[in-house]
Amino acid sequence: MSERTATTRLSESERRLVETTGIEVIDEGQRTAKPSDLFWPWFAANVSVFGISYSSFVYGFGISFVQALVVTVVGIVLSFLACGIIAIAGKRGSAPTMVLSRAAFGVNGQKVPGVFSWLISMGWETFLAIMAVLATATVFRQLGWSDGTTTKVLACAVIAGLIVLASVAGYHTIMRMQSVLTWVTGAVTIAYVAMTLDRVDLSAVMAREAGPLEAVIGALVLLMTGFGLGWINIAADWSRYQRRDAPGASIAFWNTLGGALAPTLLVIYGLLLIGSDPALEEGIVNDPIGTLATILPLWFLVPFLLAAVLALVSGAVLGIYSSGLTLLSLGVKIPRPTAALIDGTILTLGTIWVVFFAQSFLAPFQSFLITLGVPIAAWAGILMADVALRRRDYDERALFDRTGRYGDWNWVAIGIMAVASVIGWGLVINLFADAAPWNNWQGYLLGPIGGREGTWAWANTGVLVSLAIGFLGWLALGRSIVRRQEEGLTPAADARPDRVVTS
């Protein structure tokens, strides 16, 4: 065994042992991906026409087209840039995102953000499956076919099955699948725009009145949590196959471009299309993608449905693959296929409940998203600061050893996350108090700026505040911790040229 392997790299026998858990450190020989390869999974997962529907949610804050345009570009790009920064950690450590999080939180301390990560991943997967089932029923109705219980049950079974089977297939199959889906869904999306462009009424769009600053910030937070921050807890899962000498800036760039390009363009088009038609804006509340299909000619409904469902399945596959890894990182001792089956079962039950029993799914989901978005934003701030502070690759063995340099529990990081979450929850409100009354406990710090009924309450600034506290807190208090961790490398290992990180 080489000196470098003895100090910071796992031996082959250790790799085989870790591989059985599903959160293996990627062998050097398998790290052949280029930064540009990151474009495909992120683009495919975000090229769904659902992005057009988001414009309805943005307009719901009562802002103008110009204001909505600005927050769309800024919110989506910045949120995926945050994913790109965390993706650099995947290149440095060859392990899933929540395993790499152990460097900041400790091997067992990572379970605190890990629980929130698993919950938000499950929420997204279920949400995407729900939209696919509802879209199927709506398109069937448009075609004059049955859209009743049988159709929804079959759609639910097929969609859930596709998601679970694809996620079990693993990284390389998913990467190939995503590159194909990019072209299919992209082509149909372009065709959708071409067929509906004549419905855009610029005079109606520009006639929308401007909203106050707090409404603009509220729309910004919604877009950030709905796009990049919704993916940020899995950002390094797809970069762990990158070559160790890949520039960190290139990884961040391709991750950001792949994630942000399609949704930015689609939301902008949605601002034009939905801003021209109040009926579309109203229908999207309960069936985002199905409503978009109502303005299409009959002959195009089947290709539209297939592309829309495949795009949603594509996003859910990324989520369920990573949620399975997160479940394993929490200490659950089961094979990865079993973890995928557990998550798939939960996804299926959640989809059945919403499709057949819930009166509204958008309102509870948005309430859920903002609530989990606060601690995830705090965690993301801490991990982005951790990436910025580190100058060396992660010690792979220590990521799995609670007696190693990263320790068992890092109470500084956990404390920062707790403080950021408490403050963040105090500055957000449940925007859907009637639909989700179980979530009306937030907003307890809004008194000085108008209380829960004030205009600033609707801005949900707690997400941004939590992110900032996490980032600045770890940047200040974690600097010495990271330095001590990195000083634990032996001089011989530290002096080797291949220990230099190019990010």
UniProtKB/TrEMBL annotation:
GO terms for cellular component: plasma membrane. It is found in: Membrane. GO terms for molecular function: transmembrane transporter activity. InterPro entries: Pur-cyt_permease (IPR001248), Pur-cyt_permease_Fcy2/21/22 (IPR026030). Pfam families: Transp_cyt_pur. The chain crosses the membrane at residues 38-59, 65-89, 115-140, 152-173, 217-239, 251-275, 295-328, 340-362, 368-389, 409-433, 456-477. The keyword Phosphoprotein does not apply. Its main location: membrane. Keywords: Membrane, Transmembrane, Transmembrane helix, Transport. It is a multi-pass membrane protein. Belongs to the purine-cytosine permease (2.A.39) family. This is Purine-cytosine permease. The lineage of its organism: Bacteria, Bacillati, Actinomycetota, Actinomycetes, Micrococcales.
